[in-house]
Write a structure and sequence with these properties.
Number of strands: 20
Order of helices and strands: EEEEHEEEEEEEEEEEEEEEE
Structural class: mainly beta
Shape: globular
Strand content: 35-45%
Distance between the termini: 28 Å
């Protein structure tokens, strides 16, 4: 997201194209938050902040058509719930990792995996990280996840980016801070992994106030942060 709306760009041999505003997701109507592009680049998922009820958020999908981007449509269960849906990230197989305040194992509602089966998403399964994650990006092959957390012991700023590996036994490793080359005294957030699993994209903001939020998009090679078998 850039300014008042959702923008899309493409990396070509000549470099990154100028970002284009998606007219069907006007900010004043949709208040889009944490947009995420599908693996085939034909759908954008985002959460919509609603004023009534206060702070209620639902997950929406906007599809690309021959005529351009269509009007977003709200997704029903298992994406919707009485709780607040916060953010999502998609794997290459279309499995979706959803952030929600709904309760899960151990009474914590942090990350839910929603598998894509039979051309649909039948259920939500709680992902137990036991870590106060804020937003995240799943690797295309689901072998690791990058996520943000704020004010953690040993951190570098108000909100840092961490890495958790998907272990052979199906559990997730304890998230590790990605260190001072990525994390700063500012706010790092919105991490996403490139489709080839080589790069981490994230936002860095120099702060928040009631009138303006300033920040830029960064990207970095991931290989030095991953064990060889995960690259």
């Amino acid at each position: 997201m850039r300014g008042p709306g959702v923008f899309i760009t493409e990396n070509t041999e000549q470099g990154w194209k100028s970002p284009e505003l998606i007219a069907s997701i006007p900010s004043k109507i949709w208040a889009p938050w944490s947009p995420c592009l599908s693996p085939d680049a034909n759908s954008i998922f985002f959460t919509r902040s609603l004023l009534k009820p206060l702070n209620k958020r639902n997950l929406y999908r906007c599809n690309r058509t021959a005529r351009g981007w269509a009007t977003p449509q709200q997704l029903g269960p298992p994406f919707s719930s009485p709780a607040k849906e916060i953010t999502c990230s998609l794997a290459a197989n279309n499995n979706i990792y959803l952030g929600s305040t709904r309760k899960g194992a151990y009474g914590r509602g942090i990350i839910w995996a929603i598998p894509f089966e039979g051309n649909t998403w039948p259920r939500a399964e709680h992902v137990t990280l036991n870590f106060p994650g804020g937003d995240w990006g799943i690797a295309p092959d689901e072998s690791f996840i990058v996520l943000t957390a704020k004010d953690q012991p040993g951190g570098y700023g108000h909100r840092d980016i961490y890495l958790s590996l998907h272990l052979p036994d199906g559990t997730w490793s304890k998230p590790q801070n990605l260190g001072p080359r990525i994390n700063t005294a500012y706010i790092e957030h919105g991490p996403r992994i490139s489709p080839d699993k080589k790069y981490l994209f994230f936002n860095r903001s120099n702060g928040w106030n009631t009138r303006i939020h300033t920040g830029n998009i960064y990207w970095v090679e991931l290989k030095e942060y991953l064990p060889e078998s995960y690259r």
